[in-house]
Request: fold
Amino acid sequence: MTAPAKPPHIAQTLLSHAHSPPTTTQLFTEKVLQKPLHLLPTPPDPLNSPSARTTRRLARLGKKAHHLRHQKARPLSAKEKRRLGVHDVPREERRWEVYGGLHGLWVGYMWEVLGLKQEEEDEGMEGEKEGGGGRGRGAYVTAQSAGSVLASADFHGAEVEVVRSRCVGRVGVKGIVVSDTKFTFVIVTRANELKIIPKEHTIFRFEIPQPGTRTKEDGSVEGLRNLVFELHGSQFENRAPDRATKKFKQRNLSDL
Reply:
C-alpha cells in the first residue's frame, strides 16, 4: 500500500497559474523556501532590567570617570598635606650634620644675590694685572642697598639666631632653617633638636661670611668680617615663593 501523494504548497500552486513550470519552481525555491526569516530580539525582563534612572546614573558616572582619566592631577590640599606629613622632618634626619652642606650652598647663593662672588673675581683679576697678589678688598654692602634683595631671598639653609622676642625662652636659640613657612622658621640646632620659631614679634640675626675669609680652630675669623643682618619677623610673614615677586617698601615699625 503506497502513501498518498503530498499536495503541493499553496504558494507553488498560485505561482503555477501565472508562470511556466521552470519559472514557478525557481521562484518558489528562492522566494519561499530560501527566504530569510527575521526574528525580533527577546524583550528584556522587566524585573532584572535597569530603570531609566539607573541607566542615566551609570552614563553619568562613566562620563565622569572618562573626564577624570584625561584631566591633570589635582594638587594636594593643606589638610591632605598635614595628614600625609609632606612637610614633616623625620626624626632620623633632625641632625646638624645633615644640613651643614645645605648651609654652605645657602652661603654661595647669598654671595651671588649680593654680588660678592662676582666682585671678588673682578677685583682678583685687577689685582693680578697690577701685581697685587689677586686679593680684593670686598664689597661695600649696606642695609639700604641690599635690603630689598635680602627681603625677597630664600632662607632655607640659613643659620639664624633669635636675638629678641616677646617670649624670653626663645632668645638665644640658633640653628639652620630647614623650613621657611609663612608664619614660622623651622630650625635644627647643634644639639640635634627641631625648633619651630614663630616670626611674629621676633628678631632674627644671621651672618654671611665674605669670600676669602677662613675660620681658625679657635673660632676666630681670618680675613674680612662677616656681614651681619637682623631680620624682623613681623614684617617677614610671607612664603618664600611669594617673596620672590613681592616689592618691599621702607616703613616705620611701631612695635619695636
Notes: Confidence is low (pLDDT under 50) at residues 125-137. The CA atoms of residues 218 and 225 lie 16 Å apart.
